[in-house]
């Protein structure tokens, strides 16, 4: 298990590692560190199809994201790192892969207050990433510009439903963080993007990412068969 380790004033900014024989624990805490010698705040881990896992974390005072592969035993980072989205101040990365393309949902940096999510895509996880815009669909404008009053934390593939995923997010309660809740919504990859690339005014080859608002929803019957 990889986790964000910090102190009360957010100056430690480390990652931590724990191990267990079972997903439900008990876990043995191993250590914390500054990955690649950088500060690390919001973070996630992504395991690729070839078994290689990557650590993705907000760094340099949340001004950029860093991506780097883990060691084969998943207990440390290798001495390789790629800064991405430099100067864009994105956090809460949630990565997933569809038809060979890497996608990522991120949040802006606004403390505990929600803000507009952004979708990003790349043909290589260690390559350059392009921003495609706000993926939120439905609800009113305030809902879409606050990621439905939540912040990205993970994107879960749905076996048996190609192109469909579950967007998982935190709905923070600053007055009582222990009473914060979750928002889980359907995410779909498909159709053309609606925002051209800035550098050549062309449209990228990858598909649009859409997160759909529903007050209530359910997965299709026998979806995982």
TrEMBL record:
The keyword NADP does not apply. InterPro entries: Glyco_hydro_43, Glyco_hydro_beta-prop_sf. GO terms for biological process: carbohydrate metabolic process. Keywords: Glycosidase, Hydrolase. One of its GO terms (molecular function) is hydrolase activity, hydrolyzing O-glycosyl compounds. The keyword Hydrolase applies. CDD domains: GH43_CtGH43-like. Belongs to the glycosyl hydrolase 43 family. This is Uncharacterized protein. It comes from Opuntia streptacantha (Prickly pear cactus).
